[in-house]
Amino acid sequence: MYQIKGKIDSTNALEFEKDIMTALPTEIDASQLEYISSAGLRVLMKLRKTVGDVTVINVSSEVYEIFDVTGFTSILTVKKALREISIEGKEILGQGGNGTVYRLDDETIVKVYRPDHPIDLIDRERAYAKTAFIAGVPSIIAFDMVKVGDSYGVVYEAMNSDTLGHAIMNEPERRDEYIMKYAQLAKTLHTTSIEDDTITSLKELLTERVNDPVWLEYCEQSEVDVLKDIVASIPEGNTLVHGDLHPGNIMINNGELMLIDMGEVTRGVPIYDAAAIYRDLFAMANGDPEMCRKSMGLEPEVSLEIGPKFFAMYSGITDPEQLKQYLQMMQLVFAFNSMMVLPVLPDKRWAPNLVNNLLRPVVIPNADTLKYILSK
Which percentage of the chain shows pLDDT scores above 70? Predict the structure, then answer.
C-alpha cells in the first residue's frame, strides 16, 4: 500500500506529486502523515481525477480535520485511524455467530467481531445502525469503530439493563409483558420505511446469492431454477428487515427495547424477517440448545414457550388452529430462508444437509405456496 509520511507542503509538493503520479495508488496509508497543506491536497485532487475514487486510511484526528474543513472528505474517502481498546476483564453481555458484546463501562459497550470478519462489513453495520436510528428505529447509538487486539469492534452506547433474553429468563413474572414489547418492536420495524438505498435490497441480495455458481456443486440446474423462480416472485420493498431479531440482540433502556445488532439489515418484505424470528425461537431451541443459551440467553424450553405467544401477539391471531397454520407458514419460509445462506456458508460441509433436508423435501414441493406467501 502507498504510504505518505511526515509533512507535505509547498516545499515538497512537487516531489510528492511526481512520486504519487508514478505509483497511481487508489488506497493511501496516512498513519505517518503529520500535516498536509493546500499544495499537498491539490496533488491528491489530481490523483483522483486520474485514477477515480481514492481512499485515504489511518488518518489522525488532526489531519482529518484538515481534510474535513477543506471539503476533501466529500471528494475522497477519508478514514480516521482506529483507536485501540482492551476488553480484558470486561463483562460479556452476549455472543453470536459474528462476535461478542462486552460492557466497557457505564456509558458504552463494544461488539467485537471474529478476527476473520471483513472490516468493510463491520463498518457497514455501524453505518446501518446510524441510518436506522435516524429513521426512528428503536436502536442504540453507534459511535466509532475500534481495534481490539487482532480484531475490530464497534462501540455503542450502553443500556441501563441487560438483554431482553436475560430479562425474560430472570423475571418470569414479567415474561408476558416482555413478549408483548418484543412483538410491538417487530411490528414497529416492519412498518418502518427505509428510503436510504445504501441499505441493501433483500431481493437484490437473494438474487445475487441464487445466481452463485456454487449451487451447481450440490444441486441440479432444474432445482436452482425453482429457487430463482421463488426469488423472482419477491417484490421490492423499503420495509426494514432486520434478519437477526432475537432476544439476545435487543437491550432494555428505561423500559424501551433497543436493537444492538444491525449487521444483516436489508430492505424488503416483513414475512422474511418474521421467518428469521421463527428460526431463532423454534429451530434454534430444538436443533442447537447450547447456541440458544449462548446467543439468545434463553433456555430452550423457555424459547419454545415464548415462541407461540410472540407470534400470536405479532400476528393478532388468537384462534389456536389458525395460529398453528400461521406457524406452519413461518416454518416453510424459514426453510427457504435457510437454503439461501448456502452460498455464504463458511463451512460447505453443511451444504448437502441443506439440500437433502430442506431444498428437496420442503422447498421445491412447496414452491408455488412460497411464491404466494412471499409475494404478499
Answer: 99
